[in-house]
Automatic annotation (TrEMBL):
MF terms (GO), sorted A to Z: oxidoreductase activity
Domain of life: Bacteria
One Pfam family in the UniProt entry: adh_short
Keyword list, A-Z: Oxidoreductase
InterPro entries according to UniProt: NAD(P)-bd_dom_sf, SDR_fam
SUPFAM superfamilies associated with the record: NAD(P)-binding Rossmann-fold domains
Name of the protein this chain belongs to: SDR family NAD(P)-dependent oxidoreductase
UniProt KW Protein biosynthesis keyword: no
PANTHER family: PHOSPHATIDYLINOSITOL-GLYCAN BIOSYNTHESIS CLASS F PROTEIN, PHOSPHATIDYLINOSITOL-GLYCAN BIOSYNTHESIS CLASS F PROTEIN-RELATED
The keyword Nucleus is annotated on this UniProt entry: no
Gene source species: Microbacterium sp. A8/3-1
Amino acid sequence: MARILVTGSTDGLGRATAAALLDQGHQVIVHARSAERAAAVAELTDRGADRIIVDVADRQAVMDAAAELDGGEAIDAVIHNAGVISGPGLLPVNVVAPYLFTALLGTPTRHVYLSSGMHRGGSTDLAGLDWDGDRVTASYSDTKLFVTTLSATVADRWAPRVSANAVDPGWVPTKMGGAGAPDDFDLGHETQERLATDPHLAVTGGYWHHGEQRQPHPAVADPAFQQDLLAALADATGVELPTR
């Protein structure tokens, strides 16, 4: 059985993912952004899940949490699920936090990043972005293009020791997607569970939707854009993506 960190696990797809992984017998680390929100994962911790509390919009808090996690029991996989759909936290939460957890956690051999079909409408223009989140300088689509590109970059650079895949969960009925969203909620979290745990899965660098690989935005596989994105993130955070 694997030990898996699921960020953003207090509700929606993240909570469903964590619960399903516990049902399957895996060790799970659930995540809440505050002590108040931690009450939402009490049922999961009562079932044996470990818990971290960290506001992933706070860069230093993410770095501190990564250091604490890295000093504990080895983590096999990370499902980078935490996300916001609007506001100044778009870049810190949707891109910087998964980048830092990826760069700073030394033991995971699988990374799964939550993308969106909306990434196809994202811009590759990295100029003038406020990675600190003091003001809004990117759209939700931009951030999902960036994190999908990060996934492909990690796959390219860390193969074969580490796999990385991105998942479009679809437009599912969650707090973010809205109660009237038309896609199947269960299909929205089953793919990332499989990517994090299936011992026979050899795919890395994939972009997935409901269990099948799809073709992402062309920029995702562009080495120049990959390099520019990594350089921007390293410059903004002071943390470079290491060699694995």
